[in-house]
Every structure is written in structure tokens, then in C-alpha cells.
Amino acid sequence: MASGKKRSKKSAVEFRNTQLSDALQTQDMAAVAFALRHGPTVVPLMRPGARDDPRDSGEVWTYRDPNTGDVALLLFSDALHKPDSMPKAVGLHSPAWLRAFLSAHEDVITTVFFDIAGPHPLQATPADLIAALDA
Strand (E) positions, 1-135? Predict the structure, then answer.
């Protein structure tokens, strides 16, 4: 930049869905459903997508319980709510992407957690989220 000023953090992509964060705070399921239908979801990634390929959304990270084998999908309203112990990479995915991913993996994923480490965690089944996205 000619002025020598650094770019502000506001110019960077923000990995959050404020509506979803607000809905989780109130635990209002109708508001959660609305936020999922109309805004992005922060998804932890094992491998980020290729920047030059818009079709590559990365490899989604899931948790497999070592005792039961159950698979959980962890989603976040804000990348700041993701625990440091998880992979660093995140994706900001659309409602259509979430619907397609849940449909493709509904038989494997047993539960979905939102903001599992807080501040306002919520748990749902893939079927419940698909119904919310379809409403």
C-alpha cells in the first residue's frame, strides 16, 4: 500500500456466523435452523482446499470415539470457539454444502456438535439438521 499502513484484520475473511452464535446462546432451535439455512458454518479441516480450485473444499475433520467407533461432526459458529487441540485449518461452508455433506455421510455420522467447547454447545442428529436445512 502506498500509505505504508498495514491491512486491517477486518479486510480478512471472517470465519464466523453471528446469527448461529446468537441462536446457540439462547438455545433457540428455530433460530439455529434459520442461521444454518441462511449463513455459513465453520468446519474444521484435516486438509484445506486448494486456493486455485473452488471445487476443492478441503478434507473435513471428524472425531471417532475410540471406545464405540461413533463418528461425530464438530461444527462451529466462530473459528475462535474451535479448541486448539483440533487441526488448525477451518473452512467456511455454505448451507448447501452442509446439506450435501450431511446427506452423503448420514449413515456414518452419529451426532453433530456445535461449539463443543463452548460457550454454548449444542448437539443434534444429522437427520434433525437435514430437516432444519430443508425447512
Answer: 41-47, 59-60, 62-64, 71-75, 90-93, 109-114, 122-124
Q: Is residue 119 reached through a cis peptide bond, with omega within 30 degrees of 0 on the bond before it?
A: yes
The three cell numbers locating residue 130: 437435514
Residue 12, judged by CB atoms within 10 A of its CB (0-12, 13-18, 19+), counts as exposed
Sheet of 122-124: strand order equals: 62-64, 71-75, 109-114, 122-124
Q: What is the C-alpha separation between 101 and 60, in angstroms, rounded?
A: 10
Q: What is the pLDDT of residues 60-83, one digit of tens each?
A: 999 999 999 999 999 999 999 999
Rg (CA), the chain: 16
Which amino acid belongs to residue 41? T
pTM, entire model: 0.84
**Architecture of the CATH domain 15-50+57-134:** 3-Layer(aba) Sandwich (3.40)
